[in-house]
Amino acid sequence: MSGKAAKTAKFHVDEVSMMIGTDGSHETEYGGTTPAVGTPFAMTQWCAATRINGISRTMYRHCDSVLIGFMGTHQPAIWMGDYGFMTLMPQSGELKIKAKDRQVRLDRGKEVAKPYYYKVSYASGKHGGSEITTEMTATSRASFFHVTYPKDEKALLYLEAGRENEGGFIRIYPDKREVHIYNKERHDAHLGPALPGFKGYYVLKFSQDFADYGTWRDGAVSGKSVQAEGGSVGGYVEFPAGTTWVDVRIGSSFIDFEQAAVNLSKEIPARSSFASVTKKVKKEWEEKLSKIDLEGASEEDRTIFYTAFFRTLQYPREFSEYGRYYSPFDDKVHQGVSYNAYSLWDTFRAEHPWLQIMAPERVDDMVTALVQMYEEGGWIPKWPNPTYTNIMIGTHADAVIADAYVNGFRDYDVEKAYEAIRKDAYVPPTGDDKSRWGDREWWNGGYEARGGLTNYLKNGYVADDKTNESVARTLEFALSDYCIAQMAKALGKTADYEDLMRRAKNYRYLYNPKTKLFQARNADGSWAGEHSGFTEGANWTYQFCVMQDVQGLIDLMGGDESFAAALDNVFDNGHYRHDNEPGHHYVYLYNYCGRFDKAQERIPEILDTHYRNGADGLSGNDDCGQMSAWYLFSSLGFYPVTPASGEYALGIPRFPSARVELPQGKVLTVRAEGLKEHKHLPVILFNGKKLDAPFIDIRDLMKGGVLEFKAE
């Protein structure tokens, strides 16, 4: 902890720094966050744009010096694409269409960014001029812009409906002060099935009359034109001379224009003022962020903590619209609730367990959404954006669903959910014996699911000469098998349970006792290359990826002392990469080999090294809340190492005291006595009773009480 302890702020939401994670030295491997505005889990976010976004390129980066507009966006992470988006840009004087022409200098001193509000002032035009001030706030499916124009210049609003390929559509209704836009683009379209019915719809309603208007296509402007459609297409609106301000309310939808208007009327009614909507959105964030109060934390730590908390409440995003939703899995509109943007390879580890505590009212619906994707598309997706993308490996929805079930979330079709994850475990994808399943392969009409499952079922491991990333797949399949087994056991499916628990030990087939590392094998059983078969890492990165059977791994590696020494080697010799998820549980493995003291020493080091208050303050992509969730759990002193186990591993709190509001009105107080004086606080009491081991049952903790950490 740094600096003096801070007094509790009036609003936790104002302690959030929207800029943490928006920059870094690498083009893609930084936090990848944006200062996007919206309510928790917003369907459509609204963000200032400093660059043209795309796969591996978000629309905002802190090191950029220009502003090119404001976007309605659905891009969930830097290495995923956007879809169904739109851009607007208040301008004065002369209409400018191309990004390089319309860009203005971005003065950070004139920028205000909050979860509920964004404001920036800029001189219109490349060479300066009078200032325009744009303010925006947003709900889940709607936004509100308040634009202040210089009174002595022409007041314009640039609108972009499409950029290229599928493009978009714009229709201007001057008499109604409305503009309708839809965008058909999906940056990740090549990774998933065609969706002829997909569109992101927007209805824009203005407070002022239109003095002029028109459309543009491929940069060519058509004055007084009310409609345009195509690849690079958009329009503009000019307001009457002397206009000094304009309010624009925008509703978004994936269903149709009518639903976009309904969403707008429900979330930002015509009678709303900009100030009232901003206040409402701020209140919604504050209600969430005030669930945790910290005592004895520095201002620096408070900023990092509440920023991380904010980031965990953005994904998965809402995808339903007041009782209906468009499904990108069968290209149809359905009744019900839905979510999207599940970064499952990352978020099964800590983000989804965190939501069980901080957003329990959404967990059942998030599981329901996954089950619906299975029903509508045939498989639960690995990374829906918004449909199948075949990005990453494994089927970690298995862990998310089983973990939710084990921890008491049951308000969804349980049998259908089990059917879906069981299919992951037992049914190879079409063409499994003919494809190597390269990551991000172009869509060929089939979903990958567990690529390599054919050989996994036959040999107990994914064969390296048959399937890419074979070691990582084997380890992750085995973990998922364990998770499904826990749900099978609870549902009385004994045969499945016994078979899946046997498979949960398949990691043993790839353990090389000579190197004490996991190594790929070919279909004939021979060892493959030492560094072959891994995903976003190497053999050191995956050395301890056996969360489901830690004791079994300890035995393989020669017992507690050898295991602890191997962990030391990973941390002391640069093999631990906190900026990538496979190792996120590593530090807590010390708990299993009798070296809880080592865990308590290293956790603060990780927190100090990888989380800072600054644009480059987050190592590695936040990955839809996973990096942030790790910080939050570890700061509070406990962490979910093994999904579906019903257990937290304990660590060491970062703050002397924290009060956490739990589901069903319960309260957990975490206290750390002597935190400044001692590296180790090995004595742990829960509700006055000393714990025998550094673990605690999740259901016990969720009943509330006092968790105390003390020195000997």
Automatic annotation (TrEMBL):
Monomer. PANTHER family: PEPTIDE N-GLYCANASE PNGASE -RELATED (PTHR12143), PUTATIVE-RELATED (PTHR12143:SF43). Residues 16-253 form the Glycosyl hydrolase family 92 N-terminal domain. The keyword Calcium applies. Keywords: Calcium. The keyword rRNA-binding does not apply. This is Putative alpha-1,2-mannosidase. Residues 259-710 form the Glycosyl hydrolase family domain. It comes from Paraprevotella xylaniphila YIT 11841. GO terms for molecular function: carbohydrate binding; peptide-N4-(N-acetyl-beta-glucosaminyl)asparagine amidase activity. One of its GO terms (cellular component) is cytosol. GO terms for biological process: carbohydrate metabolic process; glycoprotein catabolic process. It holds the Pfam family Glyco_hydro_92N. Its cofactor is Ca(2+).
